[in-house]
Specification:
By secondary structure, the chain is mainly α. Helix content is about 80%, strand content about 0%. The protein is built from 4 helices and no strands.
């Protein structure tokens, strides 16, 4: 009994293709087109990823600049609060010292509900 191997199977086993030459060239062309599409898609994706990373970096830089600006403003405002607090303390002391010697505050005529020009004159030092 002899073992008969079909010609297509024998060609495939020998390293050839079982498909006709026209089918092989079409498959090769489709494979080449698919490879081109993959390359274009990868390139497009690479460019999009670069654009995304650049945008993310710009956003982070902008946030950092805003942070530094707000820190400077905060420092300036704290300095202003300190100055205003010192001024308020000084003015409070001046007022306290003035209240001790102010004749208008010690004049009993200040409690009159109807102000008269002569009442004010009576409280002023002569």
């Amino acid at each position: 009994m002899s073992c008969a191997v079909p010609a297509a199977a024998a060609a495939a086993a020998a390293g050839g293709s079982a498909l006709p030459r026209s089918a092989v060239s079409e498959g090769s062309q489709q494979s080449h087109e698919e490879d081109d599409r993959k390359v274009r898609r990868r390139e497009k994706n690479r460019v999009a990823a670069q654009r995304s990373r650049k945008k993310q970096t710009q956003k982070a830089d902008k946030l950092h600049e805003e942070y530094e600006s707000l820190e400077q403003e905060n420092t300036s405002l704290k300095r202003e609060i300190g100055k205003l607090t010192d001024e308020m303390k000084h003015l409070s002391e001046v007022l306290k010292d003035h209240e001790k010697i102010c004749p208008l505050l010690h004049c009993t005529m200040n409690f009159v509900t109807i102000p008269r020009p002569d009442a004010l004159a009576s409280c002023l030092p002569r």
